[in-house]
Design brief:
single chain; mainly beta; Barwin-like endoglucanases; Immunoglobulin-like; 2 domains; 5 helices; 14 strands; about 15% helix; elongated; secreted
Length: about 260
């Protein structure tokens, strides 16, 4: 448990200094195929193609955050006002960008969506553009936080879950699991990206606790009855909870969140 507390403390501190709401300046490029991003480091697979209307992005390590940034949403616009709109587009982070030239590599659909009407092909021909961006809340209408049980799960010895549809502007940095009605909790570890696992699988129906950071604040979200007794790999289960918190970083100089 002490290791888990240190882990949580680290993420609370790193989130507090991130100032995700601040507008940042960088460059963006694009992948010609969205499948390159949906099959990326977050592990969403084809499910990612439904996020933000297919407006997906790979982010640099400071945005990927060792997988904690998976599913984060960003508003991004190119700075060429002749070519691009003022509002830009909103993307969901689904992959890690290891390159050094750009903070983002976008799906071609997201890249073209930054352009003014009729100029999508023009911006695609550029290949790389100057952009500014800021983190924004993710919105999943009528959709709760959900867990997908991965195919590698083997009852009762191993459970791997994938987090889906996390709303708001926060990060899940810890997960506990217990049998419904029990107070004997055990923790899951982040396997990679949005996938968590444990080899200490309680028997019976399962409840979960999620440790959520919202900038320098953190809280625990309890989902009392998520996986049924007969849970199955490949299935998606509704937690019946929504996370809609907005990050509260200590960066008052840009708390208005406006574009420069």
């Amino acid at each position: 448990m002490s290791v888990f507390i240190c882990f949580l403390f680290f993420f609370l501190i790193s989130s507090a200094t991130a100032c995700d709401r601040c507008v940042k300046q960088s460059k963006a490029a694009f992948f010609s195929k969205s499948s390159a991003l949906s099959s990326g480091a977050c592990g969403y697979g084809s499910l990612a193609l439904g996020f933000s209307g297919g407006h997906l992005a790979a982010g640099v390590p400071s945005l990927f955050k060792g997988g904690a940034g998976c599913g984060a949403c960003f508003q991004i616009r190119c700075k060429n006002t002749t070519l691009c709109t003022k509002q830009g587009t909103i993307v969901t982070l689904t992959d890690l960008n290891q390159g050094s030239q750009t903070d983002f590599v976008l799906s071609s659909r997201a890249f073209a969506a930054m352009a003014q009407k009729g100029l999508g092909q023009d911006i695609l021909r550029r290949g790389i553009v100057d952009v500014e961006y800021k983190r924004v809340p993710c919105e999943y209408k009528n959709q709760n936080l959900s867990l997908r049980v991965e195919e590698s799960s083997q009852k009762p010895h191993y459970l791997a879950i994938k987090l889906l549809y996390q709303g708001g502007q926060t990060e899940i940095v810890g997960i506990d699991v217990a049998q419904v009605g029990s107070s004997n909790w055990s923790f899951l570890s982040r396997n990679h990206g949005a996938i968590w696992d444990t080899s200490r699988v309680p028997a019976g129906a399962l409840q979960f606790r999620f440790v959520v950071t919202a900038g320098y604040d953190g809280k625990t979200v309890w989902a009392p009855n998520v996986l049924p007794v007969n849970w199955k790999p490949g299935m998606i289960y509704d937690t019946k909870v929504q996370i809609s918190d907005i990050a509260q970083e200590g960066c008052s100089h840009c708390d208005h969140g406006g574009w420069k």
